[in-house]
Please model this.
Amino acid sequence: MTATKQAYDTLVHETGGWVASQLEACTRCGMCAEACHFYQATGNPEYSPVWKVELLRRAYEQRFTLVGGFKKMIGLEKEITDEDLKHWSELNYYACTVCNKCSMVCPMGIDLGSLLHGVRAGLAAAEVVPDDLMAAVNKQVEEGSPLGMTDSVWDQRLEWIADEWEEDIPRDVQGADTMVVFSSIEVMKFPTNVAAIAKILNKAGEKWTVSSKAREIVNFGFYQGDEKNTKMFLDRVLEGARDLGVKRIVVTECGHAYDALRWHGANWLPEANDFEIIHITGVLGELVGNGRIKLKPGAFDGNGTITFHDACKIQRKGGHIQEPRDILKVIAPNSFKEMTPNREEAICCGGGGGVIAIKAADPQRYAAFGLKIDQVNSVGAKTVTMTCSNCRLQFTDGVEHFKLDWKVTGLAQMVADSLVE
Ligand code: SF4
Ligand code: SF4
Model:
């Protein structure tokens, strides 16, 4: 079977009754375009969300509707070609972070985020996923992590982090209540975050552990759009949790990974329902709210304005919107200032959805980050904090690229630094 046929079949397969109703409901009003940071930043009409799902619409229309069949017959609508697949691969992997903002603004209630995942499934079946992204997927299949965090690297890094920051990081503890799964971005690039989370959980007296089997929360199969790989990576996490007999799984700083495990996991792998799955932001809110940890009021006041970046998959989709604000109101009551728009309506940083892993997508990624620069500058903030290490990577890189004088940090780090001893 040719790659194009494979893609066509996958796109057709994606269009069940629900997808068909979504596609039929679109009035082509164009409101979703204004919500997309890639469209806003570049003005490129092809970056309109509804155009990014055009392949799905075309496959559906040609296969399932009389009008589509007729249009194809008289040449009004062409069949999907190899060139189309290549072109839509760039539109979807370079200029979409699957941030879900377009879904929020559509007056017809169309869930564009899910449709965009459907398009990625077709593109993955056609094997037109950008090379860099595929290299990361293959690394995760073969080594267990896209960032080269093999078993031995993981061992060494955790040992080093525990020594360096003098924090106990319990490993493979049978019968612990909570299993924490870090992202390789944290372990390899932001180790202070691992130490900070360990410090908080130890201080709270949590019975927690990490697992050698479930050592990576990042899910590059989800970015790729391939169900088999996505499930394989999810299953590694669930297997670790099953083996240790934990009750809950805490996802740390990866928004996409949280989306995959929390919202999609149970549909793909029913055993995900055996565990409570929560993001670390929810845990921080819980621990502060029930008094298991105490924070020094105003600990971060006095060093200029601090603002908070909402991560699409943790705040907009995950719902952990209030916890960071409640915490910042305690530790930085006079310095915390909101960007506009914020919360559910926040603008994506531009690096999610695997975009930051694709070198050729740098122009789109930096253009989108330009919107973030304007937002941060307009509140005069010099410190930006967040709850996603993928966003943090994008901010850190953006600060370097645009030579900005901001400090980029994480909320867990701030909580750890404000703990009442
Ligand atoms: S906002 Fe909704 S109805 Fe309007 S073009 Fe976009 S998907 Fe279609
Ligand atoms: S999901 Fe986000 S990045 Fe993708 S098309 Fe919609 S608004 Fe744009």
Summary: Strands lie at 178-181, 208-209, 248-251, 276-279, 305-308, 381-386, 407-410. The CA atoms of residues 138 and 146 lie 8 Å apart.
